[in-house]
Design a protein that fits this description.
The protein is an alpha+beta fold. It contains 10 helices and 11 strands. The strands form 3 sheets. A 5-stranded antiparallel β-sheet has the order 6-7-8-5-9. Strands 1-2-3 form a 3-stranded antiparallel β-sheet. A 3-stranded mixed β-sheet has the order 4-11-10. Helix 5 packs antiparallel against helix 6 and helix 7 crosses helix 10.
Length: 300
């Protein structure tokens, strides 16, 4: 993406980290290791721990309830190992109940398996113990070396309601909390929110209006395009794994349903949106509620 931006005429400044950002009534000044840059507006797309949100005091810190901790590794099993697991890029497994507020996953690729587990940060005790405990229970992995896993923090979209605009500043991507809360997808929403922010910046420059109030249209547009999906996804995540109070019944009457499994695949490959999936998930959820109340369940 950086190369495409450069091809489009963007000036890319490597090895020049931002130290702080200062906002005045007339401009924004970005102070880096090597220079100072002045602009009418800044878009912070620098991730959860970026300088923009902290320096402008838009969002100085994250609540652990708003963050997911994810840790994963790429296990080389060869093509035969992948085929023994399932067809590459066609199947994936989610493991519920292996994390206090999350789930584990295995995604088969061409010659390796992407193996990982996530947990709401507020419920995490030891990330490495969580990962090791999960992988040691997967029979296929016992014959292969699991490289040291990589960990990252992901904003829990839907729960991570953070200020995304201020005077002369907008946040995009992870910096704004724009990551889908069920599967943790962030790249798509980073690009999408970046495009929305770019359009909002162009309008602001045309009107010469950079106040927080005038930039609110950017936030409204993000909420219109994908905010509802985040809300539905967050409710599904709370029901499924963030608040694990009835996991066995949820698995038996919800995730074992074929329509739920089809929705999961559709949500993963982008063929359906959460606002569309909600109607498909009503009956499986209703069956779960009936069983919880001790009422008879009739198959559809």
């Amino acid at each position: 993406m950086t190369e495409k931006a450069a091809e489009a005429g963007t000036e890319v400044l490597d090895a020049n980290p931002v130290l702080r950002i200062e906002i005045s009534s007339s401009h924004v000044e970005v102070i880096t290791k090597n220079a100072r840059y002045r602009s009418r507006l800044v878009i912070g797309a620098d991730g959860m721990n970026g300088v923009t949100a902290k320096s402008t005091r838009l969002h100085p810190h994250w609540d652990p309830m708003q963050v997911t901790y994810a840790i994963e590794s790429e296990v080389m099993v060869g093509e035969r190992g992948v085929l023994a697991y399932g067809e590459p890029n066609e199947y994936f497994d989610l493991y519920f109940g292996v994390s206090p507020a999350g789930y584990g996953w295995i995604f088969p690729k061409d010659d390796h398996l992407t193996v990982g587990v996530g947990c709401r940060l507020s419920e995490l005790r030891s990330g490495r113990q969580l990962f090791d405990g999960f992988t040691q229970d997967i029979p296929l992995l016992r014959n292969f070396e699991t490289p040291s896993p990589r960990a990252q923090l992901i904003p829990l979209g839907g729960a991570a309601r953070v200020p995304v605009v201020g005077n002369r500043v907008m946040l995009a991507g992870d910096a704004a909390g724009f990551a889908e809360p069920f599967f943790g997808e962030g790249i798509y929403f980073a690009i999408l929110s970046g495009q929305i922010a770019a359009n909002a910046a162009a309008i602001a420059c045309q009107k010469d209006e950079f106040s927080s109030e005038s930039l609110q249209q950017y936030e409204r547009e993000c909420m219109r395009i994908f905010g509802k999906d985040f809300e539905v996804a967050y409710h599904l995540a709370c029901f499924s794994f963030l608040e694990q109070y009835d996991m066995k019944r949820i698995v038996r009457h919800f995730f074992s349903e074929r329509r739920v499994q089809q929705c999961m695949v559709g949500l993963m490959d982008g063929s359906i949106r959460y606002r569309e999936a909600r109607a498909k998930l009503v009956w499986p959820y209703f069956k779960y509620r009936l069983d919880k109340l001790g009422l008879p369940i009739y198959s559809d």
